[in-house]
Specification:
There is one protein chain. The protein is an alpha+beta fold. The protein is 45% helix and 19% strand. It contains 3 helices and 5 strands; from the N terminus they run βαααββββ. It has helices at residues 11-22, 27-40, 46-63, and strands spanning 2-4, 68-71, 75-78, 82-85, 88-91. A hairpin with a 2-residue loop joins β4 and β5. α1 packs across α3 (46-63) and α2 packs antiparallel against α3 (46-63). The relative contact order is 0.21.
């Protein structure tokens, strides 16, 4: 599932604010937030896209990997539902979208 993110003035500050909130989340909470977003899908909201970008950076900081793909700073992709296994996340069986 994909979303084209068109950058606007003020995005950086808002994404950093969302990221600051996400840094307080446990690994389980991050996985739960991602899976909720994956289940809902993109709804076309600019704020949702900002939150997804922040979530991607939170995953990179926590796990050094993210189930969110960002291409050319504009194409956001949620790649499949995930589960926490120890200190890392893994795709759930048959959920990864190529």
């Amino acid at each position: 599932m994909e979303h084209l993110f068109l950058q606007r003035v003020g995005d950086r500050e808002q994404i950093l604010a969302f990221l600051s909130e996400l840094k307080e989340c446990s690994p389980t909470e991050l996985v739960d937030r991602y899976n909720s977003t994956f289940k809902l899908g993109f709804v076309g909201s600019h704020a949702q896209a900002q939150k997804v970008i922040a979530l991607h950076h939170a995953f990179m900081a926590q796990f050094n990997a993210s189930p969110i793909s960002i291409t050319n700073n504009s194409l956001l992709r949620l790649t499949g539902s995930i589960a926490l296994h120890g200190n890392e996340w893994k795709y759930c069986t048959d959920s990864k979208s190529e």
